[in-house]
Amino acid sequence: MAHPAQHRVERAAAVEAAKPAPVILLVDDDDITRTSMAARLKRLGYRVIEAGDGDAGLAATRTHRPNLIILDWMMPGLDGPSVCEAIRADAELKSSHVVLMTAHDRPDQIAEGLSRGADDFLSKAASKQEVLARVQASLRSSALVREIERTRDDLDLSNRLLSAKQEELECELQSAAEFVQSQLPQPGMPAPGLAMQWAYQPSLALGGDLFQVSQWGTDTLGLYILDASGHGVAAALRAIALMSFLREDNLAKAVGSYDPGAIINEANRRFPLTQEGEYFTLWVGRLHLPSRALFYAAAGHGGAFVHSTTRASQWLSSTSLPLGFDSEATFETACTQLSLHDRLYLLSDGIYEVPSASGELWGRTRLQDTLEASRHLSLEQCIGETMTTARQWLGGDIFPDDVALVGLEVLEDSVPVRRES
After folding, report:
1. Residue 161's Cα: distance from chain center in Å?
2. What is the pLDDT of residue 114?
3. What are the CA-CA distances from residue 356 to residues 222, 225, 239, 253, 396 (Å)?
4. Buried b (16+ CB within 10 A) or exposed e, 314-323
5. Which residues does 265 contact at the CB level (< 8 Å), separation at least 6?
6. Do 198 and 184 meet the contact criterion of CB atoms below 8 Å apart?
7. Which of 60, 162, 200, 382 could, after both became Cys, cross-link 374 (CB 3.0–4.6 A)?
8. Which of 223, 227, 230 is nearest to 349 (CA)?
9. Can you tell me the distance from the alpha carbon of 10 to that of 14, in angstroms, rounded to the nearest whole number?
10. What is the widest separation between alpha-carbon atoms in the chain?
11. Burial class (CB in 10 A: 0-12, 13-18, 19+), 59
């Protein structure tokens, strides 16, 4: 039985033997010299193409793209150095390996040949051993150049494919971002006597901090803001799943009521901490429009802030774990009363955890001061001014975390929500 090493040698030899013979273009106007050199090269196993002058040699170079070109220096019409110059001036041929063959290898002649594009010289009086050595060395150089060209072409192709794939991915992300944006409420008046404006800026194309203000039953608005840990596509997909759970029709079936504490308790059961450590924080509110009573509960979320013209400002949050950290946790519903002209803000932690250049966080106190100082502005202007101030603190426009800021203002006595028939 043959040794494994012998098999490897035989396989390598078989692969080498299967390779096509290198092509050598021999250009010489002397028929005897050309025929003799061609016969010598063929005996060495090379495929030889012959041309009788410089013009024919240049044409053959374009047609056959030989591995090596051996040019006679002295020829009628285009001489060897002129052919070299024509080859170097052609973008398709300039990497060809060219050896000038001359009977007079003087230093000044060699310098001229090299300056005009030759890679090497071969004396017509060279021995068989020297011819073989120079041809083999030239073919090795030519093979290396062609390998570099193939690698370059492969890289160019890979870059083009990568760019096309990147463009396709960016289009898909843009479509996904537009879909996520479509799930957010329309600014305006979600109910009679209640105005709403918001600003939303994810840190990436897709964000995991989402919110909603929508009808939950008669005379009631459901409000929530959620934060999926992490950023990007995965966080956005998980956030959309939680938004689906928080739809009015699903809550009626899954929870049986619109009580914020009961909603979060059920969400805590359905959205456990993942093996990768992914989780949600969530703030849920239910606003009874006729009485302006706001019921709310939170799971690890900074939540909401009420700015009133008649009493002290109030943060609507509680000390609690995010969803899924403790399956036995109980989340309680709290209640506060909104008054005419009160403003309720739902916000993600990304807006008050904006760092300055030195790393200092903007903080909830500065956020509150900014909202209160902008009270004389319209709700839309107030939201815009607050975002501008946050960007100034950051010193840039790209927030490191998703930023959401929703504002609602009680304009007048609310009337019952009318469902469309």
Report:
1. 14
2. 84
3. 35, 25, 28, 46, 10
4. eebbbebebb
5. 330, 331
6. yes
7. 382
8. 227
9. 6
10. 112
11. exposed
Res 147: pLDDT: 85
Q: Which domains does the chain have, with CATH numbers?
A: 4-154 (3.40.50.2300), 183-410 (3.60.40.10)
**Residue 335 to residue 326: CA distance in whole angstroms:** 24
In angstroms, rounded to a whole number, what is the distance separating the alpha carbons of residues 278 and 289? Answer: 35
Instruction: Report pLDDT for 286.
Output: 96
The pTM score is 0.65
Contact between residue 102 and residue 123 where contact means Cβ atoms under 8 Å apart: yes
Q: How many CB atoms lie within 10 A of CB 81?
A: 22
Task: Give the mean pLDDT per block of 10 residues along the chain (421 residues).
Answer: 58 58 91 88 90 92 92 90 91 88 77 86 80 84 83 86 82 76 89 93 79 90 91 82 92 93 95 88 95 95 89 88 90 94 94 93 94 94 96 92 93 57 43
